[in-house]
């Protein structure tokens, strides 16, 4: 068993880490770090628990520490980070001197030699780690996962870019409120309403997706060459981001072929049989009114992306339209970091 | 005063007709038609009233009739129709022998010589009426308004197509539940959820918008030459459709120029000072998180379309992105027919 | 293994039956009956599946039959019924000639010699079965479970009535939309709204609760002697009924004693270790803002009732106030019938 | 015209004050105070406007001041306060030296010689003002209105206590999220959920209601002698509190008589024809599924309370049950203070 810690343990994504790591066959949560307000308290006393699943017994008595390498137990090997961006920018580097940092924060996602990884999509980016460690003289390293909306989109795109030539993409999102954290979206803002703006979300989707689907030549990432434009919106849904995708292909294509490539897609985590890897990273629904967030967000224990309405555009030639749903705090956040750590544990540690 | 009737008077759009026509300076509701289940009853007794606004006193005692020209009072000049498509296809023609039919139904929208009109956009299509009457040997005629999502989109596009060259459009909608009628969307389908499918909605948007923005040469309509593809979704909002719009222009453009053209746009209803005409058909918001359906649907008494996030696409050259909100049962349905009737009353009757 | 059938198999409670019976150690679903519209089709083809949990593979190929004993397979022993009241009134009796009918319908709940049972509360009412069979000359019999709101309330009351003297109860409910069936509550009725009326619900709570907590003397039920008045309301929650309870005791009481009796309560299903029996029928929360339906409805796999805010009334002497949450389609419907069947299977069959 | 100021002008109730005072025939908003963060800015620049109604033009250019009498313009006569309790406790007294303070804050509601008033219920409590001024040596004074849930309940009770003898009351509330302020209830807490706890709400209802319905003998208030117990809950509704009321009478009563007394109830504001006074303080609905917050909250411009399901309890003798809806930020907050000020302006100033 590998001892792991969670940074930002009392927050919503921190709680998801703890919930997903309960009964994990390889990882054992032994350290929890949070703000100084929580430090020194038992985790159960320090935390307002937000998830419908019960708080695991195994973490209740862990005493929360400050978020610094000095306060972290030596016998921990991996720390999962759901720290706020600004704080992550500084503190994750300090942890990387001695720990593997599997981070859901955006601070280091696009930095040179820091792998931004979805295990089914670009596991080869982990090769950056050696350069990262050498450059910084670190014993540990940082690995990051993308933004929640990006992960779901990119997973659905991977079997397409592997088999077809994409020219351009437009995507319009309908995102769940949990993506903004527990206090992020006031009910006054969202009951009988939606908010057509999420700060920095469009920029992240537009850059991270191309980065993930690019080529790493051993020295740097050459982003994918198609173009992607996003419009991001918040809707009154608790969990599960929905995205309407418009894709222009270079050439004509067979729609059944597209669906078949999506449905049969397997990545490295499936081959390695990693614990959190869903059997099918992409599930294709044929019902005309699916996917729906409440119905499909938990597919594959929240680790699959469900697509539906996969259809040829009736107006634009060589164009595809579909809708996807992915669980934003599982596959789109905590589960993404955990799967990254499982891959690292299997291949590197 | 012109006496008017409402066909489908007990339904949700029928109720909106009645509410909007209360205290109308030119129209007096004197006849209400509905299914045989309601016929013979006082309107108040026949109707489960769905609107937060009170049922107008003036209609409570009107005895509901069957939906046929024979049952309709002779002193009525205009009938407003919110009939179901199949029934409208047949019965609106019968009414057109003697009555002006201002219809919100989709049955005749794309038919030759039947004007599909938004008064600010294509009032000249009313010129079809003469041919329609002659061809059918009717004393009355049918005029139609577009689908709710189409109206809001087309109003926002009109100042753009008048001043710039559009190459193509993608639009992704987030539509209110009232668009499906009172019993259309079960709460089980939409609480903590969304439904990424609305039957025939994408097809209507894709065809009607081009038809409205086309040219009528006195004989037939040549649709606009750009392409438009839609993806339509239902969200947990009572009233107010939201649409995310991606537009490719032929050439570069100035974003302030686009906003200015939208904000200053006036159409014929504004020039004629029609009763239901909003001062500004298109309202441009500068706040980064607007428009929102609960906040903006009632702008211009529900007859304005509010746009926001009007911005240059950061990825695609010569491309524009914005978000719009329009009230789907006022500007998108009953109010659209009423404004058509006001224009007809001013110009033709 | 006992072969079981489900009557009303395509409806919402019917689907819950199928979901709860998946992987059941004693019951094997081998027959599914529904309306003639579905009869003759594979279950998967006949059904719009409403649950977020996937349809079990084992039922997909079962051919749906008409709802009559003649159409039911002979090797079935127990049929679960979620039929509409009127139809249940007639057809459950026909099934009872040969089958054990475990019914969630209200048709026979208050009938003489037909046990209305919550296994933790009044298992002794099953003694009525002998008289029922004799009187009707049936080989099978009918056993019923109460209305969803009643079950949750009565479970929470049982440890109280066993240990204290209750004088009177007022209860105000906030009920989930799933209680009305998939199409029962239109979204237009409940988004940003609530409906302060549920047909017959108050009457059922007021009579069934006293019946369940009464005494069966071997011949008839003498209802409990306290009084209970209910006010029932529908709120925008998918699953999980919440109830605010006001109880007047005859005498003073110790609040910690009440909580302790609730938390430690065990019934016959717990002693018999029945498969669907929750470890704790009543869970007591100390957090000031619990129970909440989204957080607590799935406690004990949806078979526990969670109470909170258990407090002495600050105004009335000898009075108690608390709030409860119970899952209305699991413990309040399908799970209730299944637990009844498990008890019958253990004690009678 | 009387010049008025608003304290807490940028908050949600502060915005309601401004919206309700737009076009007021007697009051002219000339001063706006808020926190030091806003002071010195134009109101439009200092404020995130939360209401669907547009910000009145007349206030946009008013420069916000600090919340102190020194910063307040001398030509103001009345200040409306929606300050947080702790701050109100101190600063309202300072304002009272020179200004009439019409407060929605709870700080001084139950204090000796400070009138807690609903104009239709206990206008005679304004007689306390003389003693208040004398005791404190103030030129101004403080008048308060009750908590939002209390106002709606008490208005509905007034015609009952005037005509019948009440023994005891239980009330269970379903309260809108706006009652907690814009950021008060996170969407994560309330979508597909409810929260069965509102801090101090039950205590306020239990004490304020009896105080309002008591007797003022010229020296102190003797509270009403019946007992009232509350259970308070938050539901996913934007505006409009709903309350289920159980009342025990001393004697038998005629249900039509109760309804008639409620429906015909008029108070002093109606007699004086005050600007914000609704024609009917209490509206009685006969439809079995009303009142509903989305449908009934705006009755009487948000100043009426709508009751429905007024019925005899079928279980308890001499008992009444009904459900009420009142707009919590209009009649329950800003509108209450404005009506108090109108009464004071008519009778005292």
UniProtKB/TrEMBL annotation, chains A, B, C, D:
Cited Gene3D superfamilies: Dihydrodipicolinate Reductase, domain 2 (3.30.360.10), NAD(P)-binding Rossmann-like Domain (3.40.50.720)
E.C. numbers: 1.2.1.11
Protein residues bound to NADP(+): 10-13, 37-38, 178-179, 328-329
MF term (GO), any: protein dimerization activity
Pathway: Amino-acid biosynthesis; L-threonine biosynthesis; L-threonine from L-aspartate: step 2/5; Amino-acid biosynthesis; L-methionine biosynthesis via de novo pathway; L-homoserine from L-aspartate: step 2/3; Amino-acid biosynthesis; L-lysine biosynthesis via DAP pathway; (S)-tetrahydrodipicolinate from L-aspartate: step 2/4
Any GO BP: diaminopimelate biosynthetic process
Active site (record annotation): 148 (acyl-thioester intermediate), 241 (proton acceptor)
Binding site for phosphate: 109, 204
Binding site for substrate: 175, 201, 234
Record key words, sorted: Amino-acid biosynthesis, Diaminopimelate biosynthesis, Lysine biosynthesis, Methionine biosynthesis, NADP, Oxidoreductase, Threonine biosynthesis
Domain called Semialdehyde dehydrogenase NAD-binding: residue spans: 3-129
Catalytic reaction equation(s): L-aspartate 4-semialdehyde + phosphate + NADP(+) = 4-phospho-L-aspartate + NADPH + H(+)
Class of enzymatic activity (EC top level): oxidoreductase
Keyword Amino-acid biosynthesis set for record: yes
Quaternary structure and partners: Homodimer.
Record family assignment: Belongs to the aspartate-semialdehyde dehydrogenase family.
Function: Catalyzes the NADPH-dependent formation of L-aspartate-semialdehyde (L-ASA) by the reductive dephosphorylation of L-aspartyl-4-phosphate.
Protein name: Aspartate-semialdehyde dehydrogenase
Organism encoding this protein: Methanobrevibacter woesei
